Amino acid sequence: MADIYIRGGILLTMRGEGLGVIEDGAVAVEGQNIVAVGKTHELDKKYKNSKQLIEAKGKAVLPGFIDVHIHTGHTIIRGEAQDVPEIEWMLKTMAPFSKYIKPEHSIAGGALGVLEGVKSGVTTFGEIGVNEGHVAEKVFIPAGVRANIADTINEIGPNSRPDVNKSYIFDEALGEQKFKAGVEVVDKWDGAGEGRISCIFSPQGADMMSRDLLERVKAEAVKRGKLTHIHVAQGAREAIQIKLRYDTTSIKYLDKIGFLDDKVIAAHCHQTTDDEVAIIAKRGVRYASCPASIALIDGIVPPLALFIQQGGKYAGLGSDQAPGSTGHNMLVGMKCAALLNKVRHRDPTVLPAWEMLRIATIGGANTIGLGDKIGSLEVGKKADMIVFDLKAPHLVPNITRPVRNVAPNIVYYSRGDEVETVIVNGKFVVQDRRCVTLDEDEVMAKAQKASDEITEKAADDFMTVDGYLAKAVKRGLL
Ligand SMILES: [Zn+2]
C-alpha cells in the first residue's frame, strides 16, 4: 500500500547520464516521498491496492519542471512590454505600469503565474523579487507548490536613475533596508509550507549596488550556507553602468572581486564574450538561463549550450517574466531554448531533446541547490512529479524502438496542456488538468481586475513617455 501509486507509464527518471527511461514503469509515493520506482509488474505486487491509483498507459511520468528564474508578480502586465529596444524595456515600457503595481496586484499576478506554471508541469519556482515572504504566504504555500525564494537587494531608489548614460545614484539607506528585509525572509520563511519553501539571498545585480553591499550579501549567504542568486551581464543597461563605474565588464568585475564561485546562481549572462562564459563555467557558477525571455527583450540568445560546452556543471532553465517572455510554460521554454541555441551555434546537434529535459528537471534542481531532494524519480526524493498524456494528434505516434521518440515529442511538439497530473511533496496540485489547490476562475478574475486598475492609472503616463509601443499605438498599428 502507498498513498499514491502510478503504474504502466513510460518513466523518465533522469537517473544516470540520460533520461533513465523505464518502459512500463511505476512509482509509489508515501507521505512526501517517493518510496519505490521500477517495473510495473514488480511494484504491482506490493502497491496495486494503494489508496490513489493512477493508470499511466500511454502517458509519460517524469519529475516536475523546475523554473529556476522567475518573477511571477510581473505576470500581471503580460504582453505589455516586448518588441521594444532593450534600453527602453525597463525604463520606458515597464516603468509606466510598474509605478502603479501595488502589493495586492503583484499577489494577483503571482497566483496567475503559478497557475500557468503548474498547469504546464512546473513544480518548483525559483523566484526572486520584492516582499517574497508575503508571496510565499499568499501564493506559493496555498498553491501547494515548491519555491526557492529571495528578496532582491539593491540600492536603487525612485531617483537613482535620472539618466541611463550616467552612473546610478545609489541610495545607501535603502540598500540597508533591503539587506535587512532579505535576511528576514530567510529567518522567517526558510522551511515553511512543510519544507516546500526554501530561502536564499539575492543581490539584484552588480550594476544596482555598491561593491561593499554586494560583498556583504554574499558573506551573509555563505555564513548561513545559502546560495546567492544574482542577475549577471543582463544587457546594455548593466554594461553601461559597469563600464562607467569600474571601466570593465560585469563578468570581469565580478571575477576580479572573487564573487564568482559555486555558491552563486547567475541569471542571464547574455552580454558576454565566449571567454567570459568560459570564466563562469570554470568558476563553478550555477547558470540560470532564460533564452525565450532574453531573445524577446534583448534579441540575444543566452549562452546555455556554450556554458555546458565550456564545462559548466549546473545549468537550469527559467521563464523570467511574462512581459518579455513566452510566459511561464516550461514546455514552450524548452523548445525555445533548444531552437535558439541550435541557431546560435548553427548546429542542430546542440541541446538535444533529452538534454533539454534534464536541464528542465535535475539540472534545474542542482542549479538552485535542491538536487538532493528533487529533480529525479528516485527512492528517498520528494514526490514532485507529473503525468503527461502522450495521446494527442500532435504527439502520436509513440514509439520505443529503434529509437524512443518520447523526449523529442515532449520538447518539440507539446503545448503545455498535456499535463494531466501534478504532484508536489506527495500531494496533488493538478488532477485531470485542473488545478485543485487554486480556484482557476477566481485567479484569472482577480488578475484581470488588478490589471484593469493598473492600466487605468498607467495609460496617460505610458503615452506621455512616448516609447516604441506608444508610437505604434499612435500610428494605429496595434
Ligand atoms: Zn530576473
Describe the structure.
- By secondary structure, the chain is an alpha/beta fold.
- The protein has two domains: 4-63 and 376-435, Urease, subunit C, domain 1 (Roll); 65-367, TIM Barrel.
- Helix content is 41%, strand content 20%.
- It contains 16 helices and 18 strands.
- It has helices at 40-47, 86-98, 103-119, 132-143, 172-189, 211-223, 236-246, 250-256, 274-282, 291-298, 304-309, 330-345, 353-367, 406-413, 440-465, 468-474; strands at 4-12, 21-30, 33-39, 52-55, 59-63, 65-70, 122-129, 146-153, 197-199, 202-203, 228-232, 264-268, 286-289, 315-317, 385-389, 419-424, 427-431, 434-435.
- The strands form three sheets. Strands 1, 2, 3, 4, 5, 15, 16, 17 and 18 form a nine-stranded mixed sheet that branches.
- Helix 3 (103-119) packs parallel to helix 4, helix 12 packs across helix 14 and helix 13 (353-367) crosses helix 14.
- The protein is globular, with a radius of gyration of 22 Å.
- The mean pLDDT is 96.
- Bound molecules: zinc ion.
- Zinc ion binds next to loops.
- Zinc ion is lined by residues 69, 71, 231, 267, 320.
